[in-house]
Write a structure and sequence with these properties.
6 helices, flat, single chain, two-stranded antiparallel ribbon, 162 residues, mainly alpha
C-alpha cells in the first residue's frame, strides 16, 4: 500500500522533498544492507517485546495484582540478556550502516585507521585490568558463598549506647 508523499514527510518533514533510493549511491559507497536490516529488525523486535512485557506488568499493577504467571517471570528473566542483545544489535545497525564512511562524504574508514604504536599496549593494559576485576569479583563472590545463610541472616549484636 502506497501513501503519497509519506516517505518524504517522514524523512525530511517536507512532503515535497525528493527521496533518493539506494540505487543512486555508487556501489563502493553502499553499506552492507542485509546486515543492517537484520540487526535493525532484531533491535526493534526485542524492544517491542520488552515494551509488551512492561505493559503487561503495568496492566497487572493497575488491577492491584502481583504477577503470578510463570511465563511472566520467565520473560522477566529473559529480558536482561535480551536487552543486551538489542543494545548490541543497535550498535551493529549504527556502525555497519555508516560504512564505508567515518564522516559521511569526508573520510572513509580506511583513512581513519591509526598507525600509533601504543595501541597494543593500551589494549593489553585494559585486558589485564579487566582480568583483575573479574578475578577479584569471583574471589569475593566465592568467599561470600561460603558463609552459611543462617549466619548471614543473624541479628547484629546489640551495641551499648551512651
Amino acid at each position: 500500500m502506497e501513501v503519497p508523499k509519506l516517505l518524504s514527510l517522514l524523512a525530511f518533514h517536507d512532503p515535497n522533498a525528493p527521496v533518493k533510493g539506494l540505487e543512486s549511491v555508487p556501489k563502493e559507497d553502499r553499506p552492507p544492507v542485509a546486515i543492517v536490516r537484520i540487526a535493525f529488525s532484531i533491535m526493534v523486535g526485542i524492544g517491542t517485546l520488552l515494551a509488551a512485557l512492561s505493559a503487561w506488568f503495568l496492566w497487572l499493577r493497575a488491577r492491584r495484582r502481583f504477577p503470578e504467571s510463570v511465563w511472566f517471570w520467565r520473560a522477566v528473566i529473559a529480558a536482561g540478556p535480551l536487552s543486551l542483545v538489542a543494545l548490541i544489535a543497535g550498535w551493529v545497525t549504527t556502525e555497519v550502516g555508516r560504512q564505508p564512511w567515518v564522516v559521511y562524504g569526508l573520510m572513509r574508514t580506511e583513512e581513519a585507521v591509526t598507525g600509533a604504536g601504543g595501541i597494543p599496549v593500551g589494549y593489553a593494559t585494559l585486558t589485564v585490568v579487566y582480568a583483575g576485576l573479574i578475578a577479584g569479583t569471583i574471589w569475593i563472590l566465592r568467599r561470600l558463598a561460603r558463609v552459611p545463610l543462617e549466619q548471614a541472616q543473624a541479628e547484629p549484636p546489640e551495641v551499648p549506647r551512651g
